[in-house]
Amino acid sequence: MKDYYSKPALIIMAAGMGSRFGGLKQVTPLGPSGELIIDYSIHDAMAAGFERIVFVIKHEIEDIFKDFIGNRIEKIVQTDYVFQELDELPEGYSIPEGRVKPYGTAHAVWCCRDVVKGPFMVINSDDYYGKDCFKLIYDFITKPVNDGIKHLAMAGYILENTLTENGTVSRGVCEIDSNYKIVDLVERTKIAIRDGQPMYTEDDGNTWTALDRKSYVSMNCWGYPAGMFDLFDRELRVFLDGISSNPLKGEFYLPMMADKITKEGIADITVLPVSDKWFGVTYAEDKPKVMAALKELADTGVYAQRLWDK
After folding, report:
1. pLDDT per residue over 132-145, tens digit each?
2. Domain limits at 273?
């Protein structure tokens, strides 16, 4: 069992309820033969070498998730389920009164601490990342360097290629050095296209600040070495200790944690530039464009018309 849990794992964060999309994006058919976006991620991850999938979901969507996804995927790859719930917290901590919002992406990964013991990759369930990122990250995390710090990888996408015309998005905006190491990483939770320019707001749209359209951004596509969960636990506790400043809405984000441990010298982050174009379904209005993009990938032979036939 130890060997099983130590295998490189792909963690897929699928607990979101799709409030902006208007339904469960995880189970929305988008491919030419009814494939889900998550099918493409699993297909590409397996081709890259991953043998384990860990789904992070909520109990309230467990049945529908397994009906549409889990029961199929269990037949082709080793599969585990982890549940991200508000009361899943370190010992000694409790849910702030009135809190209903999830604790964020880094909390979702922390919930996997008992079933992931080796290196791992993390992605969203509703983003199409392309084939390259899975191979790049798999190769990175399976060649550990034992030099006293943790070496993380982030698939780097160009900001202007990750935006939607249909509303705001959240992106971790990076500053990198000449060796593609991140020197600064800031989670911008409300980025939109305004007059053709990517901009962000921190005051609900009263003021907007321009961003470099060629910046590398995090799409929650990360690679981590083995032995990371002590750091996840430590940082989650730090976050919870400070949540009194925003008890109902404060979130523990993966870029936030990565930036902090990098600046402390505990870790470094290598940006792995990805040539594939990202796309996703943040809003219902994004669906036609995503369906057209997946059809084109099948028509040009990048994927089979029926994904799992190939």
Report:
1. 999 999 999 999 78
2. 2-309
